Amino acid sequence: MIEAIRAGNLAQVCHCLDEGISSNITDKNDIPALVIAASKGYWEIVEVLLATGATWDNAIVQDSLTVPSNEWGSDRNIGAVTVWAAARADHPKVIQVLYSVMPQWVQAVLIQACEQGRIDVVKTITTALDMSHYRA
User: Fold this and answer.
1) Closest to 102 measured CA to CA, from 59, 42, 135
2) What pLDDT is stored for residue 29 in this prediction?
3) Is the separation of the CB atoms in 14 and 70 below 8 Å?
4) Dist. CA 82–CA 85, nearest whole Å
5) pLDDT at residue 96, as a whole number
6) Cα 119 to the chain's mean position, in Å?
7) Cα–Cα distance measured from residue 113 to residue 120, given in angstroms and rounded to the nearest whole number
8) pTM
9) Contact 39/2 with Cβ under 8 angstroms?
10) What are 32's strand-pairing partners?
11) Integer Cα distance of 83 and 38 in angstroms
12) Which residues, other chains included, contact 58 with Cβ-Cβ below 8 Å and sequence gap of 6+?
């Protein structure tokens, strides 16, 4: 299923899920399927994974995750890492999907990105959430 996610093959992902493969599957580096789909910008796959029970709240990405903390933030919650992955890769549609399910993590990442001066991440999130009405 990981290969199908990386390829953006929604039909194959759905088939794998129908065959009983868990939406919480990880790759050989312990990166969850949800994070992989978000980082690739596959918002439809993100929706399917969330709808089929992908864990994101109170779940921690394994310490063996090979991505530096400055790349996807310092928080190792799967929700936060997923938001960071999508925002860092400039996928506002994925951010919109994630915000509909986990607004607290989108907000937390936005705050953390502001504190760290990560303008790229801030821009992706604010674009996704259409925050233009907050401008002075």
Assistant:
1) 59
2) 87
3) no
4) 5
5) 96
6) 18
7) 9
8) 0.86
9) no
10) 26
11) 8
12) 77
Q: Does the CA dihedral 35-16-96-8 come out positive or negative?
A: positive
Give the integer Cα–Cα distance in Å for 1 and 33. Answer: 8
Q: Return left, alpha or beta for 5; rule: phi > 0 is left, psi -120 to 50 is alpha, else beta.
A: alpha
Residues 77, 62: Cα–Cα separation, whole Å: 9
What tokens does 32 get? 């969850």
Question: 74: helix, coil or strand?
Answer: coil
- C-alpha torsion 40→72→67→5, nearest 10: -20
Q: Which residues of the chain have pLDDT under 70?
A: 58-75, 131-136
Q: What is the pLDDT of residue 66?
A: 46
Q: What are phi and psi of 27, to 5 degrees?
A: -85, -175
Q: How many angstroms separate the CA atoms of 35 and 26, rounded?
A: 9
The Cα 103–Cα 119 span in angstroms is 20
Structural tokens at position 54 = 């992908």
